[in-house]
Amino acid sequence: MTVKLRFFASLREKLGEAGTLQLPEGSTVAAAREALMARDDRHAQALARGRAVRSALNQKMAPETAVLAEGDELAFFPPVTGG
């Protein structure tokens, strides 16, 4: 399945504004984060475990256990953003 990605605040500065990610059906937010960290060092550092990173699924806050579906929008951002 394909999930739309968005990054905000400092994550957008490091990783860019948007993109897509291919994942197996039934994947979770945590699995998406792991797949992104495996892309390259830049993603691994920005999304590393232990870093305060929040996620939103279809514009609603989502836990890492949330299950993704085809066409979902998944956003990652630091806990405090301005704007």
Features:
globular; 5-stranded mixed beta sheet; alpha+beta; 83 residues; Ubiquitin-like (UB roll); nucleotide-binding; Beta-grasp_dom_sf
What portion of the residues fall into strands of 2 or more residues? 25-35%
Biggest sheet features: 5 strands, mixed
Q: Give the overall shape.
A: globular
CATH architecture: Roll
User: Could you state the CATH homologous superfamily?
Assistant: Beta-grasp domain
Can you identify the CATH class? Alpha Beta
Q: Evaluate the radius of gyration.
A: 12 Å
Helix content: 25-40%
Query: What is the helix/strand order?
Result: EHEHHEEE
**CATH level-3 fold name:** Ubiquitin-like (UB roll)
Report on this model:
- The mean pLDDT is 94.
- The protein has a 5-stranded mixed beta sheet.
- It contains 3 helices and 5 strands; from the N terminus they run βαβααβββ.
- The chain has a single domain (2-77), classed as Roll (Ubiquitin-like (UB roll)), CATH 3.10.20.30.
- 25% of the residues lie in helices and 27% in strands.
- The radius of gyration is 12 Å and the shape is globular.
- The termini are far apart.
- The chain has helices spanning 10-15, 29-37, 41-46; strands at 2-7, 18-22, 54-57, 60-61, 73-77.
- Strand 3 (54-57) and strand 4 form a beta hairpin.
- It is an alpha+beta fold and 83 residues long.
- Keywords: Nucleotide-binding.
- This is Molybdopterin synthase sulfur carrier subunit.
- Belongs to the MoaD family.
- InterPro entries: Beta-grasp_dom_sf (IPR012675), MOCS2A (IPR044672), Mopterin_synth/thiamin_S_b (IPR016155), ThiS/MoaD-like (IPR003749).
- It holds the Pfam family ThiS.
